[in-house]
Write a structure and sequence with these properties.
The protein has 254 residues and is an all-alpha fold. Helices cover 78% and strands 0% of the residues. It has one domain. The chain contains 13 helices and no strands. It is globular.
């Protein structure tokens, strides 16, 4: 009898917490605009270097850039939590009636929306340069981007909780992992001709599967194995990130 109200309360409180976390981002769109600068430079300066047949370079390169947006926009999300720890606002939130899972879920789920907004802006911009994504694939691709963004953001928050107020340690670990994950995902260059050890590492990289899935989805290939593996990798990353974060939050609040 009490299970359903508890579930409703968890969902309701998580939605409220997500909305609370979104307010600063939506109130000050500078964060969203600034997050588009790097992808635009990559499209303008690196895109022409990708060797492909005329008219197909954007269809290969743009989906990878969108995944890069998801990676770069959420990998540093934990820095905001560090700021909350330093100024004491995090401790004040912990003593509120909200449950620990709600606090973490709200922060993690918030990452979905800025990524999708940025990805839509980039996609619309590239349409003027001849990019023509499949409409249904585009919709599924945005959902996939949001899911992987939740996962990366959750791991970033987890790292912030583990390193606590040592923000220098957070940035060392974050920067150490960021670029290998990007390179081994095939965002910028195909890994077909890479050494065997790089292909093995790429196969273990969730982002590589998401990138392959995005390229198939935008090309209108909605039922390929790449798409299935992409959603599996994104959901697994999100699930493990949230579980790791909840465990770290319990340890922090003891």
């Amino acid at each position: 009898m009490t299970t359903t109200p508890m579930k409703r309360s968890l969902i309701h409180d998580s939605v409220l917490m997500t909305a609370r976390e979104l307010k600063p981002t939506l109130a000050d769109p500078f964060y969203l605009i600034f997050g588009l600068v790097q992808p635009i430079f990559f499209l303008l300066l690196f895109g022409p270097l990708v060797h492909a047949e005329a008219g197909t370079s954007l269809s290969w390169f743009v989906p990878g850039i969108l995944v890069m947006i998801a990676l770069f926009s959420t990998a540093g999300a934990g820095s905001g939590l560090h700021a909350d720890m330093i100024d004491g606002s995090f401790e004040r939130i912990l003593v509120t009636p909200l449950s620990r899972p709600v606090l973490f879920l709200g922060k993690s789920l918030k990452e979905f929306f800025p990524i999708v907004i940025q990805a839509v802006v980039i996609t619309v911009a590239t349409v003027f340069f001849g990019f023509r994504p499949n409409p249904f694939g585009l919709l599924l691709g945005m959902v996939l981007l949001g899911i992987i963004g939740i996962g990366i953001g959750a791991f970033s928050y987890t790292l912030a909780l583990v390193t606590r107020k040592n923000d220098w340690m957070f940035w060392i670990v974050q920067q150490t992992l960021l670029f290998p994950l990007m390179i081994l995902s095939g965002i910028l260059l195909p890994l077909d001709g890479a050494p065997a050890w790089m292909r093995v590492l790429s196969a273990a990289n969730p982002l590589a599967h998401v990138v392959n899935a995005e390229r198939d989805l935008f090309a209108g290939q909605l039922t390929t194995g790449n798409v299935g593996w992409g959603f599996f990798a994104a959901l697994l990353t999100a699930g493990l990130g949230i579980l790791a974060g909840l465990r770290a939050l319990r340890s922090t609040s003891r």
